[in-house]
């Protein structure tokens, strides 16, 4: 039986786009830099020594981000996710979390604040993030095999340190932790060891179909492993059954182990598009608003913030952009490929935030 998924989950109260989708999630990229060079995200050939990252004054300040988040909450956003690049590289990131958490003192606002990280600095940062008011954390782990993990991050970073970062997050009370794993045809062997490792820990392992984000990872359709294959592989060893979605617009389909050892999720943006319930907007580190992960351009919000626009003007700008939103790239993808390759350029994931 397939889990419930689709338009029946849609609520069309408040601000709504051209397809009746509300604005609920704001993903905020705080840096385009990263200490990893994951081959599918920031390949060394492109993101080498000469790559021009954003200058510090181009980045939205914490005050600008917090103001924007407050205005977005007034428009119906309930979830804030800090991402990047690698968000823990942004100096003082816990101060930003603290400022965002202060928005909870505004009547009627209870934003859920989450962060996605490669986990490399988590041992050092976990306590400060928790103290600042972070609710939840997602850590990306693509393999448990150290040699393979080091080859995937391409900077020889050992997997043990990421696992230790996950333990640190658990110790300070940031659990249960979501673990993101991108699956490609050449990484299928990582699936079962990861499932065995995280089963019974309370952490939720989520397998993400490899996506054609950016223009530098050389994505081809043949490298995508359909989530159904991932579920079948795990189910054959440890039987699974579907779970209902937790919330409106949830990207992952949830499955639980029949023997009570926890749950996994699959994010099937290629084989089972979820654009119909997509309530997510993204803001790049330099303050451009994107209404789709696959958009080819964004809307400059930083200019408004720095030119003295009032809250009302910023709010009207956001509403106008969202009201004109008609994005549904993943639903249209198959018709836009040529020989299994994308025909248009997309914004890099490290820029727009995953
Ligand atoms: N650096 C942090 C991290 O790796 O968790 C946050 C940013 S990263 C861009 C966010 C998520 O996007 C990660 O879980 C990463 O694995 C995922 N990602 C990056 N490129 C991807 C791709 N081409 N397809 C699917 N997921 C991708
Ligand atoms: Fe960095 Fe995350 Fe991209 Fe890997 S997936 S290169 S850790 S931003
Ligand atoms: Fe949302 Fe765009 Fe992804 Fe569809 S393709 S789910 S509209 S971000």
What do you see in this structure?
- The protein has a single domain, classed as Aldolase class I (TIM Barrel, Alpha-Beta Barrel).
- It is built from eleven helices and 14 strands.
- It has helices spanning 62-74, 93-102, 122-132, 146-153, 159-171, 191-198, 227-237, 302-306, 311-323, 329-336, 349-352; strands at residues 25-29, 79-83, 112-117, 136-140, 178-183, 204-209, 240-243, 253-257, 263-267, 280-283, 288-290, 299-300, 337-338, 341-342.
- The strands form two sheets. Strands 7-8-9-6-5-4-3-2-1-10-11-12 form a twelve-stranded mixed beta sheet. The chain has a two-stranded antiparallel ribbon with strand order 13-14.
- The protein starts with 24 loop residues before the first strand and ends with a helix.
- S-adenosylmethionine binds next to strand 3, strand 5 and helix 11.
- Helix tally equals 11
SSE run: EHEHEHEHHEHEHEEEEEEHHHEEH
Oligomer: single chain
Largest sheet: 12 strands, mixed
Defining traits:
single chain, 354 residues, alpha/beta, 12-stranded mixed β-sheet, two-stranded antiparallel ribbon, 29% helix, binds S-adenosylmethionine
